[in-house]
Amino acid sequence: MSSLLVSVFCPDRTGLVAAITGRLFELGANLGDASFALLGTGSEFTAIAQVPDHIGADALEIDLANLPELAGAAIRVSRFGLDADHGPAGRITHVVTVAGGDRPGLVVRLAETFAQFHANIVRMDAHSEAGTLAGRYVTRFAVFIPPAAVTPCLNTVANTAGELGLACQWQASDA
Q1: Last residue of a domain, one of 49, 79, 109
Q2: Residues 68 and 11 in one domain
Q3: Of 98-102, 119-123, 140-144, which gets the smallest average pLDDT?
């Protein structure tokens, strides 16, 4: 088996994840880390796939491009040369949500705060909620925070959010 990084970007359509993962399954691939997200009216699927040795990156890219659901998609398949297993800092210890009006520089200020406490951002999602009058913006971080830094890190994140007039909440993760 070899590890490939599969990336697909295209306009959002119903059935994309089913089409991509279904074809990978048919080819004998086993998915590792994977994510799917809407980006405006587009969508992005990214995954590490363990594939049989006879399936090369170029062949898989061509195969996926033949799926009707991926017509016009930007597809990239490449060798994944890193370790697919997470280290200790890949474990999510907390999920932090900051919400309110959109503030320029919000994501960088929060990311810098996490970095200050050697917290690793494992996943991040930021989006405007459609249909809200004031343009409610929600940013969610799944992070690893070293045990000794939990209290000062979370307090600093909450203070930073408060300075920007935003609500902040977090919960410890059992993962």
Answers
A1: 79
A2: yes
A3: 98-102
Provide the terminal-to-terminal Cα distance of the chain, rounded to the nearest Å: 28
Q: Judge if 73 and 12 occupy the same domain.
A: yes
Q: Are residues 168 and 112 in the same domain?
A: yes
Label residue 131 left, alpha or beta by phi (over 0 means left) and psi (-120 to 50 means alpha): left
**46 and 103 part of one domain:** no
Please tell me whether residue 52 adopts helix, strand or coil conformation: coil
- Give the 3-state secondary structure of residue 1: coil
Q: How confident is the model at residue 131 (pLDDT cuts 50, 70, 90)?
A: low
- What does the pLDDT read at residue 88? 82
How many Cβ atoms are within 10 Å of 166's Cβ, its own excluded? 21
Apex 158 CA angle, 153 and 160, nearest 5: 95
